[in-house]
Design a protein that fits this description.
- The chain is α/β, with parallel strands linked by helices.
- The chain has helices at 13-24, 38-48, 64-74, 90-98, 110-121, 129-138, 146-156, 161-168, 172-186, 191-200, and strands spanning 4-9, 29-35, 52-56, 79-84, 102-105, 126-127.
- The longest helix is centred in the C-terminal third of the chain and has 15 residues, at 172-186.
- The radius of gyration is 22 Å and the shape is elongated.
């Protein structure tokens, strides 16, 4: 099998050298080129056609967000992995919105990084835990109906489905369906998580 072809884009020489050295000792990955910034990377992408780009988020001349946007627009099939020191930066969410397939903090252990690269090449989306939280916090707020906001406020107040139904004038089953819809819209696994997300995104006036 052909190795996964990787382009490294980072303005720090030590980072480029470290990643290149790490990948050199694998059989299924290969570094095909390196660049110091986005402006330098774009012509290399056109000539080398890598499978994956490991891209620093913050670079001079052209940063990771703009570079990701330009490359993704021209080569949507190339998977872009954002590497960042600042996992809580809102710029990470912007890069993902621009087309990045994954985002990892730079202190990710070597074995985990290599495993992530292989998973990304296979079509999976991989994000460090703190980055996943940042993306969620910076994503657009979901549109809840006025009824759903009313029900969610009662959930926050600790009311049961039966009591919520009596307060808003619908059946208990209808309340359950509304709560399920609210969780789906918020990407929450349960009522408690839905409440946490709603409060974090300021969807309710408490």
């Amino acid at each position: 099998m052909k190795p996964i072809r990787i382009l490294i884009v980072d303005n720090h020489e030590l980072m480029r050298l470290g990643l290149t050295t790490l990948i050199r000792y694998t059989d299924d990955l290969a570094v095909v080129g390196t660049a110091e910034n986005g402006k330098e990377a774009i012509p290399l992408v056109r000539s080398l056609k890598p499978d994956i780009i490991l891209m620093d988020l913050r670079m001079p001349v052209m940063d990771g967000v703009e570079t990701t946007s330009r490359i993704h627009a021209e080569f949507p099939e190339i998977k872009i992995v954002i590497l960042t020191t600042y996992g809580t930066s809102a710029d990470v969410a912007s890069a993902v919105k621009a087309g990045a397939s994954a985002a990892l903090v730079k202190d990710t252990p070597n074995d985990e990084l290599l495993t992530a690269i292989r998973a990304i090449a296979a079509g999976k989306r991989v994000f460090s835990r703190e980055i996943s939280r940042t993306i969620a916090d910076n994503s657009e707020s979901p549109e809840l109906t006025s009824r759903q906001k009313e029900i969610l406020k009662l959930v926050v107040d600790g009311q049961r489905n039966y009591d919520i139904g009596r307060n808003v004038g619908i059946s208990t089953d209808a309340v359950k369906q509304q709560v399920k819809s609210i969780c789906t819209k918020l990407g929450a696994a349960n009522r408690a998580e839905a409440v946490a997300i709603a409060l974090r995104k300021h969807l309710l006036k408490i």
